[in-house]
Amino acid sequence: MNAIADFSADDSLSRLDALEDLSRRLLERARAAGASQAEVSCSEDRGLNVNVRMGEVETVESTRDRSIGVTVYFGQRKGSASTADLREESLEATVAQACAIARYTEHDEASGLADADLMATEFPDLDAWHPWALEADHAVDLALACEAAGREFDPRIANSDGASVGSGESISVYGNSHGFFGRDRGTQHSLGCALIAGQGDDMQRDGWYSSALAREELEAPALIGRRAAERTLARMAPRSVPTGEYPVLFAAEVARSLVGHLLGAVSGGALYRRASFLLDSVGTRIFPEWFSIEEHPLLARGLRSAAFDAEGVATREVPLVSGGVLQRYVLGSYSARKLGLQTTANAGGVHNLKVAANAGGFESLVGGMSRGLLVTELMGQGVNPVTGDYSRGAAGFWVENGAIAWPVDGITIAGNLREVFAGIEAVGTDVDTRSHISCGSILVGRMTVAGSD
Question: The Metalloprotease TldD/E N-terminal domain covers which part of the protein (predicted)?
Answer without folding.
Answer: 38-102
